[in-house]
Write a structure and sequence with these properties.
about 575 residues; YbaK protein; Rossmann fold; nine-stranded mixed β-sheet; about 25% helix; ligase; nucleotide-binding; protein biosynthesis; Anticodon-bd_dom_sf; aminoacyl-trna synthetase
Length: about 575
């Protein structure tokens, strides 16, 4: 392809709103352009990379026994109401009405659509298991689109769904797709981890996220420094064994703490370490008010709270709601004298607290020398905090360390969450009707493209791996006004095309410096430069990632190129 005939609008400066490297470089190198906040057009280079990522995904999904299909992006609300998610999915679901005021959603995911399709056409165990997938645009109304392709309102996704007559069959397919995902991200050349995760709005249980390691990742991975254990920080259980101090219990004392709102402020004011205070936060768990108590140096894990109550929605209560029930606002809450309509649940560490402080449920006051069991009762103790670096690894090997990660894939064991609510059933060998058992498997294709750039770039631009690069070779004619350079470049271009080498030919009438800068920015793996020694038949061969370069006679060029591409 001749560069003069392609739309590759490169930029010298970073866009003002681009905070991370993938966003900056994909825009600067002419791969994407923003149409609206969180909505991007893929220009020719971007589309070529996207297609290559999709091809790798397709190959591995097909090997795993999945079959590609395509479902509509526009989905009737009736299906979402059947599953119960029309009201619970949240504001991220883009909703609209047609001219007849019928309600629709733009597909954020396709569990409802695929379940309705299968229930109408599959009714016997003889046609199970079945695994179907699609690669399609998805829509989510992100509150704060950011980081370019990493958090958008419109994005490309591969989503797959499996249907089974037994949990053993689901386990087998889950393992097969899990391995397919590992193959996909390995083939893409990504440094990733598969981590234990939460199913969130998807429902179900037993789920893993595939995380690309990156400092710009919005998720934190908790991993062992001595084993292969890894989990999203939301899901990592705390197995710390606490010891209770043998100091004598002191008399409860109420003290004024004016204008002290945070745990750090209270601890400094009372002159004790954070762990000698109790933190109390009011949550709305579905329709129930729950006061969650942790040690002052720990953070409440709302995912663990949600799983404890098997709730649909968990959110912090507003200060107005809290004050109405507790008689005090944030910063002065505590577990003593809590109204009967409020559950009090506490993290395991609280049980071992001795002579600690807590809010007095009166603005500007705290209790000192608080002791659980004597001064307050807890409805239930549970693991309710986030794991911390240095905590014991849940698998008993090593201690926990943290890393940042970009989620690019997620696999779920959905079970019968959707099949029961939407009445998708099959007849077993005895003629008995049973709900289908389901699995769900997603890959963020456009997110994966951005994650690749986060791991493959340097100070000059992108350094694509060969198998996903938009072209294999970037051919530069430094001065197309000189006949010997133009003629040699044209000859090399035609030869490479005939040999099936994917080549971009920079035939533009630009300065050499501009061509070199654009080539580095675009990041094609191998560069051939036709310059001053064209008359002698010599060109320069340079590897983009390593920077290694050498002069090669045109008679040896094809052999060298093919050898490098095979590597």
């Amino acid at each position: 392809m001749k560069q003069s005939e392609m739309l590759i609008p490169t930029l010298r400066e970073n866009p003002a709103d681009a905070e991370i490297k993938s966003h900056q470089l994909l825009v600067r190198a002419g791969y994407i352009r923003q149409t609206a906040s969180g909505i991007y057009s893929f220009l020719p280079l971007g589309k070529k990379v996207l297609k290559k990522v999709e091809e790798i995904v397709r190959e591995e999904m097909d090997k795993a026994g999945a079959h590609e299909m395509l479902m509509p992006a526009l989905q009737p609300s009736e299906l979402w109401k059947e599953s119960g998610r029309w009201d619970t999915f949240g504001p991220e679901l883009m909703r609209l009405n047609d001219r007849h005021q019928r309600e629709f959603a733009l597909g954020a995911t396709h569990e409802e659509v695929i379940t309705s399709l299968i229930r109408d056409d599959i009714n016997t165990y003889k046609k199970l298991p079945l695994v179907l997938y699609q690669i399609q645009t998805k829509f989510r109304d992100e509150k704060r689109p950011r980081f370019g392709l990493l958090r958008g309102r419109e994005f490309m996704m591969k989503d797959a769904y499996s249907f089974h007559d037994s949990y053993e069959s689901l386990d087998e397919t889950y393992e097969r797709i899990y391995n397919a995902y590992s193959n996909i991200f390995t083939r893409l050349g990504l440094n990733f981890r598969a981590v234990i995760a939460d199913s969130g709005a998807m429902g179900g249980k037993d789920t893993h996220e595939f995380m690309v390691l990156s400092e710009v990742g919005e998720d934190t991975i908790a991993y062992s420094d001595e084993s292969d254990y890894a989990a999203n920080i939301e899901m990592a259980p705390v197995v710390t064994e606490y010891e209770k101090s043998d100091e004598p219990l002191k008399e409860l004392e109420k003290v004024a703490t004016p204008d002290q709102k945070t745990m750090a402020e209270v601890a400094e004011f009372l002159n004790h370490p954070l762990e000698k205070g109790l933190k109390s936060l009011m949550f709305k768990v579905d329709d129930r008010l729950v006061l969650v108590v942790t040690r002052g140096d720990h953070e409440v894990n709302d995912v663990k709270l949600k799983n404890l109550y098997q709730a649909s929605v968990v959110e912090l209560a507003s200060e107005e709601e809290t004050r109405k029930v507790m008689g005090a606002g944030f910063g002065s809450l505590g577990p003593i004298h809590v109204p009967d309509e409020v559950d009090v649940v506490a993290d395991h560490a609280v049980k071992y607290a001795v002579n600690v402080s807590c809010g007095a449920n009166e603005d500007g006051y705290h209790f000192l020398n608080v002791n659980p069991g004597r001064d307050f009762e807890v409805t239930q103790y549970a693991d309710l905090r986030f794991i911390q670096e240095g905590d014991p690894s849940p698998d008993g090997r090593g201690t926990i360390q943290f890393a940042r990660g970009i989620e690019v894939g997620h696999v779920f064991k959905l079970g019968t969450v959707y099949s029961e609510s939407m009445k998708a059933s099959f007849l077993d060998q005895n003629g008995k009707s049973n709900p289908m058992i389901m699995g769900c498997y997603g890959i963020g294709v456009s997110r994966t493209l951005a994650a690749l750039v986060e791991q493959y770039h340097d100070e000059n631009g992108i350094t694509w791996p060969t198998h996903v690069a938009p072209f294999h070779v970037h051919l530069l004619a430094l001065n197309v006004n000189k006949e010997e350079q133009k003629n040699l470049a044209e000859s090399i271009y035609e030869t490479l095309k005939k040999e099936g080498v994917d080549v971009l030919y920079d035939d533009r009438k630009e300065r050499a410096g501009v061509k070199f800068a654009d080539s580095d920015l675009i990041g094609i793996p191998l560069r051939i430069t036709v310059g001053k020694r064209a008359g002698e038949g010599y060109v320069e061969l340079k590897q983009r990632k390593s920077g290694e370069q050498t002069e090669v006679h045109v008679s040896e060029l094809l052999t060298r190129v093919n050898k490098w591409l095979k590597q």
